[in-house]
Amino acid sequence: MSESTAVELVADAHAIVGEGPVWDPSAGLLVWVDIEGKRIHEFDPATGVDREIEVPQYPGAVVVRASGGYMAAVTDGFASVDRDGRFELIVPVEADVSGNRMNDGKCDPQGRFWAGTTRMTHDLPIGVLHRLDTDLSLHPVVGELWVSNGLDWTADYSRMYFIDSFVQRVDVFDFEPATGAISNRRPLIEVPESWGFPDGMTLDAEGYLWVAFWGSSRVRRFDPEGRLDREITLPVTQVTSCAFGGPDLRDLYITSGARGLDAEALEREPHAGGLFRARPGVQGRPAFEFAG
């Protein structure tokens, strides 16, 4: 197990809760969000510019839309966001539930948008993982969640990985690509409390899982059986998510947050909330786009 992979700060954005990185190959941009800052970021590695798009609700996740622009999982549901900042709530979610917001999400191989909710105070397990189909029909899939978080699919699309952060576990489901149905939830990785909370995640081209850990300055790589393979150490504690990008999909972009850090902690971590990049020596996979 190695911790020697170099990490580079590429955008000193001071995000409150940076999250949800996704590579847009057509634009050559790494797109990510600051949830509590209500911003979608577009980082251009060719210029080093990190452009911000302000949105009126908390963006828990953003995905590239095949027809152009983005879809975002926001406070009140699924929204369309154009690159010029035009925002429209398309599909409301949990309108009858007070105090919830949408959190992490991702598109599946058929272009459906999966994203879950969490209570803003994280004090009750009333979150739900939702699936937005390409016809804009909404389907609640998994309930009684604390903090619905990272997810991804195996290369053969037979399994879906999923994280509910406060359960301290990475789970796996059987996945039916044609319908989006999931079944047979079981634990893959039991996370020790000393590792922090499992947060966002991605899979590489070898089928290994890369999981970001809030509270422990780490991104950890696991083999498909859940065995720890290696770690990457960052100069910030609140590590939130990761995704492969760049022209060769060999850059691992890592988001972070600064929420709740006091002045002393920020002095130790002046780049908390920044966007980081590593070259871990493996290739990622292209992100799926929303096909609706």
Features:
single chain; 292 residues; mainly beta; Neuraminidase; 4-stranded antiparallel β-sheet; 24 strands
SSE order and pairing:
Layout: E1 7-11, E2 18-24, E3 29-34, E4 39-44, E5 49-54, E6 61-64, E7 70-74, E8 77-81, E9 87-92, E10 100-107, E11 113-119, E12 127-132, E13 138-145, E14 148-153, E15 159-164, E16 169-176, E17 181-190, E18 197-203, E19 209-214, E20 218-222, E21 228-233, E22 239-245, E23 251-256, H1 263-268, E24 275-278
Antiparallel strand pairs: 1-24, 2-3, 3-4, 4-5, 6-7, 7-8, 8-9, 10-11, 11-12, 12-13, 14-15, 15-16, 16-17, 18-19, 19-20, 20-21, 22-23, 23-24
Named CATH topology? Neuraminidase
Record field, number of beta strands? 24
Given helix and strand content, the structural type is mainly beta
Query: How many domains is the backbone divided into?
Result: 1
For the record, give the distance between the C-alpha atoms at the N and C termini, rounded to a whole number: 42 Å
Helix and strand string, N-terminal first? EEEEEEEEEEEEEEEEEEEEEEEHE
In short:
The protein has one helix and 24 strands. The protein has one helix at 263-268, and strands at residues 7-11, 18-24, 29-34, 39-44, 49-54, 61-64, 70-74, 77-81, 87-92, 100-107, 113-119, 127-132, 138-145, 148-153, 159-164, 169-176, 181-190, 197-203, 209-214, 218-222, 228-233, 239-245, 251-256, 275-278.
